[in-house]
Automatic annotation (TrEMBL):
Residue intervals of the Enoyl reductase (ER) domain: 5-311
Membrane-traversing stretches: 90-110
Protein name as it appears in the record: Enoyl reductase (ER) domain-containing protein
Recorded GO MF terms: oxidoreductase activity
Amino acid sequence: MQQRSNKVVRGLNFQDLMVRLGAIDSPPKTPTILGFECAGEIEAVGEEVEGFKVGDRVVALPEFRAWSELVAVPIKYVYHIPDEMTFQDAAAIVMNYLVAYILIFDLVSLREGKSMLLHSVGGGVGQAIVQLARTVPNVTIFGVCSKSKHEALAATGLIDHLIDRTDYVNEVRKITTEGVDIVMDCLCGEECNRGYGLLKPMGKYILYGSSNVVTGETKSFFSVARSWWQVDKVSPIKLFDENKSLGGFNLRHLLYQQDGSEYVRSTVDKIFALWKDGKVKPVVDSAWALEDVAEAMQKMHDRKNIGKLVLDPSMEPKPKPATPAKSKSKKQASEDKGGKKDKDDDKKTAENGGGDEKKEGGEGAEEAKTNGDAEEGAAHVNGDGAAAEKKEEPAGATNGDATES
């Protein structure tokens, strides 16, 4: 399906940030276009495509390139959206709620009366997990996030205990000495050890992300290595003795490497059914013009968003600050000084070592000699406010298993 600028919305995920920083396995060859999630209308289909036609309203999960102006997507990654659903909601709901639904109902089988510790509760997946968990009666949620988000999240009334991440283990122990039944960890690193220690017998620990590897503006091999080496090795015998379970989930691997497309499609249908019934509603933190994608990614990098960030090409980019005047070149500066000297020749100053010299055969006027004048350098700024790349490709799918988005 072809993405037109006034009819399509893209989703921004933490996975995009990790790809940009090179902190992901099997990264794409550069140059590439980022993006795993987009919603819009189909503009062209391949000859053997069934179930989709031009004009259908869909959401797609391509492996990269979702931020392109035109992208060809195999039909196994394309899903019809309800007629009443906006493209913004479609781009905000699919990937986050896919992860949340599979975690809650397939991996931990959340039941009435259970307790759950959830890291990054203010993020897009965190908010999706909270909403889905609230469809199960009497579930206690311990939400871990930065203090700055507590007021906004408390206003939703969906989280029982909001805890600052700096000392969440002791805070949980103050509330319940028994611990929790479920830990949802998207951080990795030493949080794995802390979270495992909070599990009750018959508890389940699920790792579904490794955002702790993102610690700076560029990839840090040290942070990646540290994140994994900080995790204690847990033997199957220890799990057997303690009656605990460990699990992991990676949607990208399931969808693109392990042929889980049919399972994912059935899950998308369940999520849309919950949306129609009003049981879930995606939380959109903010929408951004494509030209402002760098600023949007920085907000996600700094963990300042509550809910989903989306990219909407129909929006006007934010005004950029005025560019400061360029510094004068050395030659221009010298010419300016020379012109001033001609006008003020009665006030010439000698600046060569501080000594005054008289010109022979002259009228005794002073001559200015300036050696080593300070050179004004031009500042070069790279990487500030980079605009998102738009790439246009010919419309029309080239094979039978692709639609164009």
